[in-house]
Amino acid sequence: MALIKTLVDLSGKARKGGILALESSIKEVGDQYFAKGLQLVVDGIEINSVRNVLEKDIEYSSDRHRLGAEVFVTIGTFAPALGMIGTLIGLVQMLQNLEDPSQIGPSMAVALLTTFYGTLVANLIFLPIAGKLKTRSKEEMLVKELIMEGVISIASGENPRIMEQKLQSFIPPKSRKGSG
Predict the structure, then answer these.
(1) Domain for residue 91, yes or no?
(2) Could you tell me if residue 135 is inside a domain?
(3) Could you tell me which residues come within 8 angstroms of residue 124 by beta carbon, excluding any fewer than 6 positions away?
(4) How many structural domains are present in the chain?
(5) pLDDT digits (tens, 9 = 90+) for 110-127
(6) Model-level pTM?
(7) Residue 103 has pLDDT above 70, yes or no
(8) CA-to-CA distance for 65 and 77, rounded, in angstroms?
(9) Which string of DSSP letters, residue by residue, matches 136-158?
(10) Alpha helices for 44-179 (secondary structure H)
(11) For residue 180, is it within any domain?
(12) How many whole angstroms separate alpha carbon 161 and alpha carbon 166?
């Protein structure tokens, strides 16, 4: 809601003082993507070109985030397999020492623990990290899309109240202005 309020305020400022009145606000927005969009609008770049630049930024950011999450998915996928390799090593040790019953227990422990650790590390560390990265990426892309729509609305001189209603569709109904 704070971001929507900022966009609505900037829209009102642009309607009263013209697009160039936003130049002083560019440094105050605090978000590099938001500042880039405003700067493009203030520079008088065509709306379709502004949209293309901002969409490319979203696309490439999303790709970078996806690659980061895939690293953790891959590690999470291979961790149980590495645990199984440890299990095989433990079983080989156990079979080598069948003549000494006191050596069977520790070898069997290695065999079972490596599978356990591989599964544990995958399901409690790497896969949840991948999931969290994917969720955060989606949230960030949604915020960027909201900013892009707001900047485009400002550039096209849209009424601030209409813009506010349009931008509120990006957030859950319970979080919207006027909701209980």
Answers:
(1) yes
(2) yes
(3) none
(4) 1
(5) 888 998 999 999 999 999
(6) 0.78
(7) yes
(8) 18
(9) HHHHHHHHHHHHHHHHHHHHTT-
(10) 47-96, 101-121, 127-155, 160-168
(11) no
(12) 9
